[in-house]
Automatic annotation (TrEMBL):
Active site (UniProt): 84
GO biological process, one term: pentose-phosphate shunt
InterPro entries named in the record: Aldolase_TIM, TAL/FSA, Transaldolase_3B, Transaldolase_3B/F6P_aldolase, Transaldolase_AS, TSA/FSA_arc/bac
GO terms under cellular component: cytoplasm
Catalytic activity: D-sedoheptulose 7-phosphate + D-glyceraldehyde 3-phosphate = D-erythrose 4-phosphate + beta-D-fructose 6-phosphate
GO terms of molecular function: aldehyde-lyase activity; transaldolase activity
Family: Belongs to the transaldolase family. Type 3B subfamily.
Identification of the protein by name: Probable transaldolase
UniProt main location, coarse: cytoplasm
Major enzyme class: transferase
Gene3D superfamilies: Aldolase class I (3.20.20.70)
Naturally occurring in which organism (per UniProt): Thermodesulfobium narugense DSM 14796
Role according to the record: Transaldolase is important for the balance of metabolites in the pentose-phosphate pathway.
Length: 217
């Protein structure tokens, strides 16, 4: 399973990219605002230079023609982007046009299997079921990931599933087990996945034993 970083903070991406575990990045208007990004093009350009997989950038318009216009503008930058389109009827009209133009799309704000299925039919490159936000309201977010993975496999659908709205490492592991192609993970969650207290204790013990050996020579 691939891992995308769910952030627009370039310093975080720059810090974690060298670990070799970050394949792509997803942004949204809230994340860009949080990162204080005013020069969106400059930020997306820099992020694209740090990862291999597409960087998701979201449209603001609500009508298909507005979304298509924004998507064409983003794709005229000639960067490796996927245009994030909200899961609405208008959104899918836009996806249908953009997919025929070869523009990659990531249909966002997916909360049900039926929404994911329609987005894939419209030609989405990626679909993003929001696991955490569903769990927050006592629904099972992972169930949507699991169902979509099952259905896409049966029909040989190429749309890739991004498990989004990830809250903790178990969400990542369970998304992998449920068949998500990608999990988009906030920096804090990814950083916590590197660590285990027994690893720290083990390193400390090896180092102190090694030091003892040197001193006994
Ligand atoms: C990514 O594509 C989504 O925009 C993001 O994962 C949403 O996460 P949140 O539910 O924590 O805002």
């Amino acid at each position: 399973m691939q891992i995308f970083l769910d952030t627009a903070k370039i310093d975080e991406i720059r810090k974690l990219a060298p670990t070799g575990v970050v394949d792509g990045v997803t942004t949204n208007p809230s994340l860009l605002a949080k990162a204080g990004c005013k020069d969106i093009k400059g930020a997306i350009k820099e992020i694209c230079s740090l990862v291999k997989e597409p960087v998701s950038v979201e449209v603001i318009g609500t009508m298909a023609d507005q979304m298509i216009k924004e998507a064409r503008e983003y794709s005229s930058w000639k960067l490796n982007t996927a245009i994030k389109i909200p899961m609405t009827e208008e959104g899918l009209k836009a996806v249908s046009v953009l997919s025929k133009e070869g523009i990659k799309t990531n249909v966002t704000l997916i909360f049900s299997t039926s929404q994911g299925l329609l987005a894939a039919k419209a030609g989405a490159t990626f679909v993003s079921p929001f696991v955490g936000r569903l769990d927050d309201i006592s629904h099972n977010g992972l169930e949507v990931v699991r169902d979509l993975a099952h259905i896409f496999k049966i029909y040989g659908i190429n749309t890739r599933i991004i498990a989004a709205s990830i809250r903790h490492p178990i969400h990542v592991v369970e998304s992998a087990k449920a068949g998500a192609h990608i999990a988009t993970v906030p920096t804090k969650v990814l950083e916590s996945m590197f660590r285990h207290p027994l690893t720290d204790i083990g390193i400390e013990k090896f180092l102190s034993d090694w030091k003892g050996l040197q001193e006994s020579k």
